[in-house]
Amino acid sequence: MAQFVQDIRSAPHLSPVDPNTVIIQRGFKITTRKLPILKAGPIETMTSSLGITPPEMIFGDNMVSVEHLESGWVIEFNSFDALDRVDKTGGSMLQVAHSKEWQSTREKKHEGITEIVKPFDWSYSTDYKGTAKSRTLIFEPSMSPIPLELLKRPDPILFFDEVMLYEDEMADNGITLLSCKIRVMPARLLLLCRFFMRLDNVLLRIRDTRIYVDFDSGEVIREYVEKEEDYEVVRKKLGTRAQDVPAQLRDPNNLIGLLPIVKKSLEHLIIG
Q1: What's the distance, CA 128 to chain centroid?
Q2: Helix (H), strand (E) at residue 42
């Protein structure tokens, strides 16, 4: 127990002047930041930099990062980099009747900002896997999955947080959002960055990036999985459960097992 307490060199804290919540465990610094949605000025700057209009609720200052202090390796999840992975050509735009309605909601002024709408994926679907920063430590393809049996152990949770990156109600035709959850145990951590989209009567889509870190071995595993299915197919499956179908359709945790995998990748690196 004494060694365990000694390993946590910085307990979770939230300073009035520092919005970051930080825990350092076994040489890894885990940081989360949760601030209000961006105001007019930063939204205008982000729009200009991205080349697309941000979602209705954009938490541009929020982030989650995992850093190995000795090597300097970092992986960070933030809204700007995630949105930068959205298709900006309009080639993958969901062609439904409501897409024009959605664009019309963007062609207006917000607090003095004139938004210029260009064709792009209005669902804000992203294949974002995090922003890794290192000159020498690079993810490589792997066949070793995240060890779920270790994560099922009743280990104490030293730290847990959930951070929203962006959300949009798609002109009241569904929802699209990106969020992160992270939990830190004495010997390992797991981070989940989930993109969830529900376009009513059209499509359901979930894209998960998981980062697993083993503090003892220094192995970092990154798993990326895309799942999607037609809205009506999932609605019918939920109807057999004799539950509140509309409520079930709002919770990705209830849908994840009903959507087939359309893409998957597995990578890892070892921090020596």
Answers
A1: 8
A2: helix 40-50
